[in-house]
UniProtKB/TrEMBL annotation:
GO terms for molecular function: L-malate dehydrogenase (NAD+) activity. This is Malate dehydrogenase. One of its GO terms (biological process) is tricarboxylic acid cycle. Homodimer. Residues 19-160 form the Lactate/malate dehydrogenase N-terminal domain. Residues 162-327 form the Lactate/malate dehydrogenase C-terminal domain. GO terms for cellular component: mitochondrion. The lineage of its organism: Eukaryota, Fungi, Dikarya, Ascomycota, Saccharomycotina. Substrate binds at residues 96, 102, 134, 168. Belongs to the LDH/MDH superfamily. MDH type 1 family. InterPro entries: L-lactate/malate_DH, Lactate/malate_DH_C, Lactate/malate_DH_N, Lactate_DH/Glyco_Ohase_4_C, Malate_DH_AS, Malate_DH_type1, NAD(P)-bd_dom_sf. It catalyses: (S)-malate + NAD(+) = oxaloacetate + NADH + H(+). It comes from Candida oxycetoniae.
C-alpha cells in the first residue's frame, strides 16, 4: 500500500484543487512535512502557519517547482491561513526529550491543540483535521470536544495520525524477515502511545514467528519512538519519519476527498468498534472518501496474543481519552 499511495500522491494529474494548512510548520516535523506536501500535486494551495518562522519556511519551500502556491502566516494571520482549507494538519507542539513519554507532553500540547482547534472550528469547520501533536490518544478527543462545543463536530473529518506506527511496523518486520519493507503491510490498531499500539502480526505473512521474536518486535513497534529520542540525545524526537508518515496520511485523505477508490489507512478516529465498552476513539483500518471516513473496518481475526494486547490497549485508551475531554471541560 505504501508504494501505491506514494505513487498516487505524487502523480501529476489532480482532478481537484485543494488547500492544505499546516499548523506548526516551523518545527521539526512541520518543515519536512511542508516540503513533502509541496511535492504532492493535489495540494494547490499550501498555507504554513506557526508562532514564528513560517514565512521563512514558506519562502524556502515555494522555490520547489510544483504547481502550487505557498504562503507563510504569522500568529496574527491564523484566520487567513485556515479560511478555505480542505485539510488541516496539526504537527504543532513540543517534542519529547529522553525519559519522556508522549503523555508527559500533555500539559503543554493540550493548550496548543485546544487553541488551534478553536480557530479551526471558527474559520474552517468543514475541513478534514489530521492531528499529529502528541499525545494523539488525548489530543484528538480535545479537538472533538472543542468542535462539539462550537456545534460543528463531524466525526468523519477528524483523524489521529498513527501512520508512523504502520511505517515502523513494515520496516521492523522486514528487518527480522529479510524482506522488502515496501511489500510489508502490517495493520496497527489501538492508539498511538506505548502499549496502546497493537501491531496485528497474525494478519501478515509472518504469523508463525517464535514468541520471543514476536515479543521483541511488538515492543519495538510500540516504543520505536524511544530509539529516536535516545539517539538524538535531547535534540528532539522522530521528526523526519513522522513527516513522511504525515505526508502519506494527508495524501491518502486528499485521494479520498478526490473520489479515488479503495483508499485505506489505519487511523485513530471516533469509532464504533468498542464504544459500548467506553472506548470512544480507536485506531483501525479506515476507508477514506469524499466525506472523510467512509467506513471503519473491524479488526478481523486476532490471535490470542493480540486479543490480550487489544484488551490492555482499551483499558489505557479509556484513561487517555478521558484526560483529553476533562482538559477541555476544565480549561474551555
Amino acid at each position: 500500500m505504501l508504494s501505491r499511495i506514494a505513487t498516487r500522491s505524487f502523480s501529476s494529474s489532480a482532478s481537484n484543487a485543494y488547500k492544505v494548512a499546516v499548523l506548526g510548520a516551523g518545527g521539526g516535523i512541520g518543515q519536512p512535512l511542508s516540503l513533502l506536501l509541496k511535492l504532492n500535486h493535489k495540494v494547490t494551495d499550501l498555507a504554513l502557519y506557526d508562532i514564528k518562522g513560517a514565512p521563512g519556511v514558506a519562502a524556502d519551500v515555494s522555490h520547489v517547482p510544483t504547481n502550487s502556491t505557498v504562503k507563510g502566516y504569522n500568529p496574527d494571520q491564523l484566520k487567513e491561513a485556515l479560511t478555505g482549507a480542505d485539510v488541516i494538519v496539526i504537527p504543532a507542539g513540543v517534542p519529547r526529550k529522553p525519559g519522556m513519554t508522549r503523555d508527559d507532553l500533555f500539559n503543554t500540547n493540550a493548550s496548543i491543540v485546544r487553541d488551534l482547534a478553536k480557530a479551526a472550528a471558527e474559520y474552517a469547520p468543514k475541513a478534514a483535521i489530521a492531528v499529529i501533536a502528541n499525545p494523539v490518544n488525548s489530543t484528538v478527543p480535545i479537538v472533538a470536544e472543542v468542535f462539539r462545543s462550537k456545534g460543528v463536530y463531524n466525526p468523519k473529518k477528524l483523524f489521529g495520525v498513527t501512520t508512523l506506527d504502520v511505517l515502523r511496523a513494515a520496516r521492523f518486520v522486514s528487518e527480522v524477515a529479510g524482506t522488502n519493507p515496501t511489500q510489508e503491510h502490517v495493520p496497527v490498531v489501538g492508539g498511538h502511545s506505548g502499549i496502546t499500539i497493537v501491531p496485528l502480526l497474525s494478519q501478515t505473512t509472518h504469523k508463525d514467528l517464535p514468541k520471543d521474536t514476536k515479543d521483541s518486535l511488538t515492543h519495538r513497534i510500540q516504543f520505536g519512538g524511544d530509539e529516536v529520542v535516545k539517539a538524538k540525545d535531547g535534540a528532539g524526537s522522530a521528526t523526519l519519519s513522522m513527516a513522511q508518515a504525515g505526508a502519506r496520511f494527508t495524501g491518502a485523505v486528499l485521494n479520498g476527498l478526490d473520489g479515488e477508490k479503495d483508499i485505506i489507512e489505519c487511523t485513530f478516529v471516533d469509532s464504533p468498534l468498542f464504544k459500548d465498552e467506553g472506548v470512544e476513539f480507536f485506531s483501525s483500518k479506515v476507508t477514506l472518501g469524499p466525506e472523510g471516513v467512509k467506513q471503519v473496518h473491524g479488526l478481523g481475526e486476532l490471535s490470542d496474543y493480540e486479543e490480550d494486547l487489544v484488551k490492555t490497549a482499551k483499558e489505557t485508551l479509556i484513561k487517555n481519552i478521558k484526560k483529553g475531554t476533562d482538559f477541555v471541560d476544565q480549561n474551555p
